[in-house]
Amino acid sequence: GRVERMHGSDARVKPALARGAGQHLLLVVHEPGVAELLSTTLELAGYRTALAGTGGEALKRLAEQRFDLMVVEAALPDMASLARERPVVAHRPPVLVLTGYDSLGDLVPELGPGERDYVTKPFRVAEVLARVQVLLRDARPGHPRDGALSYRDLVLDDTLCEVRRGTRTLDMSLIPT
Known about the structure:
By secondary structure, the chain is of the alpha/beta class. Helices cover 30% and strands 23% of the residues. The protein has 5 helices and 9 strands. The strands form 2 sheets. The chain has a 5-stranded parallel beta sheet, sandwiched between helices. A hairpin with a 4-residue loop joins strand 7 (154-157) and strand 8. The longest helix has 15 residues, at 125-139. The chain is globular, with a radius of gyration of 19 Å. Residues 1-11 and 108-113 have low confidence and may be disordered.
């Protein structure tokens, strides 16, 4: 076999892209091409994905299943109603919003409280992967969010209405008498 040596700019090493560990992401994207690109890329990166094309579909999916993160396109036809209706679900996942740069002024008030971030369109896949990883890291069980009370491995998260000991969520709805 022939061995070739790399010289100069050919020897550049690209940094490894962020990888998932099977976390479940809900992609709320209206544009089919963007939905396909994101779902394929995120699944290749180690995430499990589910798709919703509207805010209404997203609310239904959130009521049926727990997601670790939502990626939401800001230009959804019913984005305003999604922001107003704040899903009443046991778990509110962090949200990564895909938005046009010219829409940032309108977007900031809509983001509201909680774990939120945005990427402007047209976006780079590497940036989406990095932001997803950061949001998931900051929202993982055992990692106290801003405003959560914690003592050693016990966390009282008022925003999520959860109590955790380590990585285990404690059920506080049934108190023995």
